[in-house]
Amino acid sequence: MIKETKRTIVENLVNIFDTAELFIFFDIQGIPTEKLRILRTSIAKNNLKMKVFKNTLKKKAIERSILKDVDINFAGQIAMIWDIENRPMSAKILKEFDKTFINTRVKSGIHNKKIITSDYVKKLSVLPSLDVLRMNLLYMISSVTRKLLFSIKYKSIVIIKIIKQKFNK
């Protein structure tokens, strides 16, 4: 690889490390090409990015990015998945891939500029999606509202009298 190409790759990686919120580094050694193709397709469908860079280029990019204080051991064939939107979807995809095909051996990652472990990635993989969380929150709010309205329904005449008294003062 020529120097100019390496420099461009490092610059692109620095940009990725400075903008993305979630990175997962995992070992791809021994994973058949066909299985990796399936994983890449699944990742692309969810607007995530996956790429394999030379470990030395990743190290140089980290040193030049805002993650310069982060120390990650890149040994072996390490792939990287990243997400700019900070969703746990990449962890969910890896978990599903592990169940269906082959163990991806998550090494570590970075979440909100902090190093995370494979256990942390496993915990991310069971988080509900943002849509599910929003739906649950709306249900809880509507439930409380319904209960409140039901409880004051029989006292509505009293409440109306109190409001009229406040406005008449």
Strand content: 5-15%
Average pLDDT figure = 83
- Described by the principal axes of the CA atoms, the overall outline is elongated
* Sheet having the most strands: 5 strands, antiparallel
Q: Quaternary status of these chains?
A: single chain
Query: Based on the structure given, which CATH architecture of the largest domain is correct?
Result: 2-Layer Sandwich
Task: Enumerate the strands of the largest sheet in spatial order, edge to edge or round the barrel.
Answer: 2-3-1-4-5
User: Secondary-structure element order, as H and E?
Assistant: HEHEHEHEEHHH
Number of helices: 7
Low-confidence stretches: none
Tally of separate domains: 2
Distance between the termini: 84 Å
Classify the helix fraction into a percent range: 55-70%
CATH third-tier fold name of the largest domain: Alpha-Beta Plaits
Number of strands: 5
CATH superfamily of the largest domain: Ribosomal protein L10, N-terminal RNA-binding domain
Question: CATH first level of the largest domain: which class?
Answer: Alpha Beta
What structural class results from the helix and strand content?
alpha+beta
Please tell me how large the radius of gyration is. Answer: 25 Å
Secondary structure layout:
Blueprint: H1 3-19, E1 22-27, H2 33-45, E2 49-52, H3 55-64, E3 78-83, H4 89-100, E4 106-111, E5 114-116, H5 118-125, H6 130-153, H7 156-168
Antiparallel strand pairs: 1-3, 1-4, 2-3, 4-5
Q: What are the main properties of this structure?
A:
2 domains; 57% helix; 169 residues; 5-stranded antiparallel β-sheet; Alpha-Beta Plaits; alpha+beta; 7 helices; single chain
